[in-house]
Amino acid sequence: MTKVLFVVSECAPLVKTGGLADVAGALPLALGAFDCDVRILLPGYRAVMAQLSKTRVLETYDDLFGGPAKLRHCVHAGLTLYVIDAPHLYDREGGIYGDVTGQDWPDNPARFAALSYVGATIADKGAGDWTPDILHGHDWQAGLTPEYLHVAACDVPFVFTVHNIAFHGNTTADQLNALRLAPTRFNADHFEFWGQISALKAGLMGAAKITTVSLTYAEELLTPEFGIGMDGVLRYRKAELSGIVNGIDAATWNPATDPNIKPYKSAAGKAANKKMLQKTFGLDPSDGPLCVLVSRLTEQKGIDLLVDALPELLSHGGQLALLGSGDPKLEVSLLEFAAHNENVAVKIGYDENLSHQMMAGGDVILVPSRFEPCGLTQLYGLRYGTVPLVALTGGLADTVINASPAALSNNAATGIQFFPVNAQALTNAFRRLCALYQQPKVWKILQRNGMKQAVGWDMSAAEYHAIYRGLTKASS
Ligand code: ADP
Predict the structure, then answer these.
(1) What is the atom index within ligand 1 of the atom nearest the CA of 325?
(2) Which one, out of 166, 192, 287, 368, has a CA that is 20 to 30 A from the CA of 320?
């Protein structure tokens, strides 16, 4: 039995802002099949504490980065959790990373240093009668963990997974003492990054193994365009870097049993869901291709390209139903576009149930991202017979097979890819999509190929297990 502690800032179904939460909620269960006991260390945000009952206090801290705290233990939705109950850090109105206006919390460095610190403490001293063999941290919020392992002189190996390199978790050097970091390690070999403290760099430099969430993104990260300042660090650590594609929670995302939709086993069952979705979004019951998009609305996601490219889709009788929230400027431009186009409907907000209905009712799932470490919605689309139209980047390149003539004739094609990521290429992709949609036989083959693709966690969990085994063998 390999004992692993995830150190992570969000975890579905308890608290989620993006794909990281899905991974943290599903991968531990998948690793159970590989004789791994994976437990999860999570901040006790207000929304998390409200959902937990019957917790047991394992540890108390008089001063955890500015106030008293407790480490609580419980099992929730099949997940074994350690939750940091620290009201001064986590009990507040607003989002988990920022206030209601979207501004990052100014004390984020301390809030997530505390997460990393407690992770290292559990590795060093255990939690109750349980001590992990491996710490597995995710993104910058867990990046300082190896620094606290160093301070505690604890040699439990640290695995670091990069879900998105764009977030560095930097803070100013005058925080060294407040964050309880060793001043002697404020240098380029550890966590110093151009004069600042970088939690992400600390994780990358201190990890025994680094993974990211697709093979293509692992290669892209080594380039200045995608490495976003960390490409040099990653080239330095290249020997320890690998890509393991994300899976999806195949029980939650199963069109045959999904309680949010009219369940179906073959793509023929999508028609009834399409009608309902058109109604939900106030769209006409048209027969054209209904594209759906579920996303954070940010520059990364290529949302700004839509306004220029959508006229092509609409000119062929297509429709768009979009659900998302984020950048206020993008929200306004999408809402304005929808106000002038009856075949475009936009809902601003976050709605898990509706996102399932969109996968079931859509003909096409759009993911026009400029960069995409893995991406999950194209995987949901594959499972639901909703053909992905995606940018050729990161995990989107790895998980979708473009409908080229050769791939179509070999029954391999599952979707449509476009490159470069600009409005003209997306326009051309909409044209190709509409041409394919007008050939029902070809369209059915695309759907069937996609629905057959393995998108669960089994294969990827085996790869994580192999990494853990390599490390526990090395340290025993
Ligand atoms: P990222 O982690 O970069 O946001 P991913 O595609 O990896 O992108 O994961 C996003 C996850 O969040 C998916 O599960 C997606 O369905 C979900 N999601 C994003 N925006 C919304 C929304 N507005 N409503 C419901 N679910 C959303």
Answers:
(1) 23
(2) 166
Pairing of strands 79-85, 69-76: antiparallel
**First-to-final CA distance of the chain:** 14
The CA 355 to ligand 1 mean position distance, Å, reads: 9
Distance CA 12, CA 81 (A): 12
Nearest 10 degrees: Cα torsion 134, 136, 140, 142: -60
Please name the residue ranges forming H helices in 320-393: 328-340, 352-361, 377-383
43 in Cβ contact with 84 (< 8 Å): yes
Determine if ligand 1 sits within 6 Å of the CB of residue 260: no
What torsion, rounded to 10 degrees, do the Cα atoms 283, 437, 391, 312 define?
-60
What digits encode the pLDDT tens for the residues 41-82? 999 999 999 999 899 999 999 999 999 999 999 999 999 999
Q: Residue 323: how many CB atoms within 10 A of its CB?
A: 21
Local structure of residue 105 (DSSP, 8 states) = P
346 has pLDDT over 80: yes
On whether the CB atoms of residues 163 and 19 are closer than 8 A, the answer is yes
Query: Quick check: pTM over 0.90?
Result: yes
Asked if residue 295 has its Cβ within 6 Å of ligand 1, the reply is: yes
Confidence of residue 475 (pLDDT cuts 50, 70, 90): low
Atom of ligand 1 nearest to the CA of 12: 14
Q: What's the angle, vertex CA 55, arms to CA 51 and CA 56, rounded to 5?
A: 165
State the residue for tokens 């540890």. 59
Q: For residue 296, which atom of ligand 1 is closest to its CA? A: 20
Q: Is 378 in the pocket of ligand 1 (CB under 6 A)?
A: no
Handedness of CA 428, 397, 278, 271 (dihedral sign): positive
Over residues 296-329, the pLDDT tens digits come to 999 999 999 999 999 999 999 999 999 999 999 9
The secondary structure of the chain in percent helix, strand, coil, rounded to multiples of 5, reads 40, 20, 35
Tens of pLDDT, residue by residue over 163-220, are 999 999 999 999 999 999 999 999 999 999 999 999 999 999 999 999 999 999 999 9
Spatial CA neighbour of 154 closest among 171, 134, 183, 176: 134
The two tokens of residue 268 are: 């023929």
Residue 225 CB coordination number (10 Å) = 9
Tell the residue nearest (CA) to atom 20 of ligand 1: 295
> From CA 253, how far away is CA 365, in angstroms rounded?
15
